[in-house]
Structure formats: C-alpha cells, structure tokens
Amino acid sequence: MSDNDRATQSEELIARMRAARGYIYPEWEFAAKMDPEFTEAYNRLYELALGEGQHVSAKVREFVAIALLAFRGADRDGLVAHMRRAIRLGATKEELFEVLEATLVPGGAPTFHRGLNALLDIE
User: What is the spatial distance between Cα 25 and Cα 81, in angstroms, rounded to a whole number?
Assistant: First the structure.
C-alpha cells in the first residue's frame, strides 16, 4: 500500500470513528495513522461492544461502560466523552446520575465521586 493510500485510509477511518462516537482520543488517531488495519480491527470490536445490540441498546451499553470506566479510575475526559455519547444516544443527565448511584455499593465512594466529577462537565 502506498503512503498516499495509507494516509487516505487513515483519514477516512478517523472520520468514521469521530462520527460514530462524537469524539476520538488522540491516541487512537495516532494509531490509525500508524497502522490503519490494526485500528480498523479495534474499531470493529468497539462497534460490536458499544453499538446497538440485539437485546441491549447502545445507550445502555454506554451506561455499563461509564460505570466500569468510573470504577477503573478512567480520566475525567474519557468519562465525559462516554457520557456525551450516551446523551447523543438519548440518555438524560438524570439517567447518568442514576447510573452513578448504582456504582456506589459495588464500586465504592471513589467510583461514585469520579463519575460525579465527570458529570459536572455535562451541560
């Protein structure tokens, strides 16, 4: 594949990822430029995991991702990005708050607090 073809493939992939998510992390943009085939494979897995399921909506899948990211100590920007995607998928701020409430017992106060900190950025 020529450098021009790779650059075109990378830019198209980055645009698709940004359109589907509403964001793209700089690290994944870099990965797409370095190895678009690898990043395309990751993107397919992402779409299967966080896209519309047969029984669970993409919005609910985002709720799960938000809870897990808060528990795992994800940075604020990552949580905010997933919260904004959930809102684009139809979630309300109140639903996001209830998702965070559900993290308190299994995940502890730090998980709840981390999520609240990100939710403060959502307007």
Answer: 9
